Amino acid sequence: MTSLLKRLAGGTGSRSVKAELRGDVLFALVIGVVGLIAILPGRDGAGTAMADMQLVGSIFAVIIAAIGLNLLTGYAKLVSLGQGAFYAIGAYGFAYLFLDGGFPALLAILVALILSGIIGALLALGSMRLRGPQFSMITLVLAIVVERILEQLETFGRASGYPNPLSHGTGLLEPIELFGTRLEPPLLAGTPGNVLVALLIVLVIVLVLYRNLVRSSWGRSLRAIGESEHLAAHLGVNVFSRKVVVFTVASVLGGLGGIFYVQIFAHLQPETFDIFLSITIVLSVILGGGGTVLGPVIGAALITWLQRSDVLTSVADAQQDLFGTDRWYLSTPGLLGLLFVITLFLLPNGIVGTANNALRRWAGADDESDADAALADLEVAQLPPREERREPGAELLRIDGASKRFGGLQAVGEMELAVREASIHAVIGPNGAGKSTLANLLTGVYQPDEGSFRLDGVELAQLKAHAIARSGVARTFQTPQVFPHETTLENVKAGFVDVAQLPLWKAALKPPSQYRREREIHDRAIELLDRVGLAEDASTLAGSLSYGKQRALEIARAMAMDPRLIVLDEPAAGLNPTECDGLAALLLQLREDGMAMILVEHHMDLVGQVADEVTCMDQGRLLAHGSAEEVLADPAVVAAYLGVPDPDDVAEMEVAR
Ligand SMILES: Nc1ncnc2c1ncn2[C@@H]1O[C@H](COP(=O)(O)OP(=O)(O)OP(=O)(O)O)[C@@H](O)[C@H]1O
User: Domain named ABC transporter: which ranges (predicted)?
Assistant: First the structure.
């Protein structure tokens, strides 16, 4: 076990702080060197190299916009069809501010980026409550509106005094000057195209920040939102605000892509920013692999190369030669569309996603190990006590007069319940008694109609799920909820407070303290997995774990949240007897460590084994309360479960007890 833990600590998704730092520096160097190799041939300004240099520059620009979209679409699974609009806003915003507004270049860049961000934030504030296709449609509308505005505002362009920026441009943007250097675009034979060096430096910086971001707890929160917004909220993530922020960041990156574009081509024409641009950026993410660090980089490079080189045109010409007609052949956009369809069929996870999966399979990381070992094989490590935790027995939670109606149905009515520190309070009752509804009221799934839920004196009623989670209430679910496409280890890491609360700047800049914190999270997550018997499954995808193991994983994740109270909604459902024994041992150990728990359960063996107090509900109301023995022997409880108090059934419950 120890050697396994050492191997995991060194090898599964996290390395020593020094090795991690070396990896980060290497990433920046590799990107920098590849970029330099791409732009060096054009530095002499030779005319033949000009088109190549513009190609490289376009790739840089689309990469920037695509990584922004990847944050939104690849990680948070919010499909935006409007990234091209921000590209246009950045490009035109900069051009107007620089030329018309007379802003210094750097200030014009900054203000154009802020403008992109503000428009992105406003759009996000208005549309983030929409989901799926509705959200995509809003972004599509933005792309179309911006395209139309650019087409129609030629008069505005003329009036601006800028030489024809909005129509087919002969008017060229003056190269900008930064720190005494004139940054020439790769425009004509003889112009050095040295702006590419500056753009490469910016590109490397942005890529490093972006990589830091997606590999941090902040990135984990995006992946959590992408997998399940509902679950992310129960881990303390303010889903709405995080979605607004990520949309804003994506918009700023879209704007930056547009600013890159102006520096490379030095003139603007509305056709560049049509809806096909947005689709190209989406294609870049999908082809390269959404939700992977390098996916949009590779996808953007490939798609831009295909579009700008004559590869696709040659294929289109070859079709014409073959069929001898100019009517029935696939033009360049048609060929790109075909490539898109082929990618979706053959590489649904994109190039990088598919390569990652193949590597994972090759490394044998997906091996399923013995399912029964999960909860039975418990190692017990001490849970570091939470600071606020008080002495065992002190009242931690008090539910008073909690009520909830669904239409005409009183699902919970004037319920009362108290939970003490370091204790297990079981809530039992027949099907439909209102147990899960009570758990859902406590954890913010529903807002109570009436009543109070005080955790150590702090009122939780009416708080949102994420705020309740942050107050120290963690939960598991009747049907286990894990992030199926993440590893078991990553699932536990999703529980740490950093996922909900790490500031964006810290995630992107990754100061030395962040390296150490990530290391701590990793070690603690491994420890928690070991504690619930899942150490061997650390690198297995959570979706392929057995039911029992998923339940154990939920408990480990809840513990990662370092809560004051864990609400367990039928944790024994679907477990075999060995797993159930393991679960009982785990709960008792957690109690020993000072954890308070509410156990919603039908499994009377488990209740009898672990509960300090039992509350029985019936038809939404409190039926009985006391020790497990008292409540399980209560004739009213037996009657509620069985309809009528049959002496044989009472005897059966006695046995269970
Ligand atoms: N979202 C909802 N909308 C309408 N009715 C609901 C909703 N959630 C629960 N109910 C109803 O409220 C009542 C209590 O349901 P609840 O799931 O809380 O019971 P339970 O004690 O957890 O049952 P079980 O043990 O079967 O899970 C049931 O009649 C149920 O149909």
Answer: 397-644
